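Per reviewer request, we include the raw input and output of the structure prediction for the construct analysed in the revised manuscript.
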Amino acid sequence: MEYLYVLIRRFSERLSLPRITVIDIIEILVFAYAIYMLLKWIKDTKAWMLLKGLIVIVAFVIVAAITQMTAVLWLVQRLVSILAISAVIVFQPEIRRALEKLGEKDIFASFLQIDMTKSTMGQFSDKIVNEISRACHEMAAAKTGALIVIERKTKLAEAERTGIMMESLISSQLLINIFEHNTPLHDGAVILRGNRIVAATCYLPLSDNRSLSKNLGTRHRAGVGITEISDAMAIIVSEETGHISVAMDGKLDVNLTDLELKERLKELQTKETDKRKLKFKLKGRS
């Protein structure tokens, strides 16, 4: 027993554990959160399948290192830099989308004395909510296909340039007339900013989300696609079924009633109003 005690004491003396401070714990939490968000982001994209293939390759390299396969290890060392550049090229759309999402988070603007962004929903009033919901209701009853995009903080300048500029006040009659069959402006999306129709016949990026139903057409995929790269809300009226759908943050809610659509628009209006009040309070305190 005495010999065992001496052995354990010598082992504990040789075993030097690193000193863990508060900063170390914070760094561990930051890295853990970053890795979690990275995996969550990859899982929602086509990069998930490529990641599985990469894991298989890494496992093969480990086996090659253990068994001393010099030729394989030499080839892997020469291909590392090429694979890194290839990954950036292959994942360019996903990387761009992730950076755009990161740029949407306005961390410091609330504490600045000067508001760096112009409120795009400053005039999103109850009248606008009623006009949009009335137009969607009548188009759904007539089975007139429509795609209405409500711009929020993220500017949709790229999508605007693909359409025809209008700069008109929002009204249900104008929205219905735009999407009427066999009219010059019925094809494409309409972009709304505040209380105005900015542009019509706009082309939007299509979503490559595989979880969307195969029954959904190009109009629904375009509505989901614009919400994946921005914080906009997209309202889609199906030409085949007459159902009203709403897309936000890459998620699609289908077959909404007129009351549910109006509630979604009210929620959007309330969120923007609360954000403006919070900014004013923080500026006043500063």
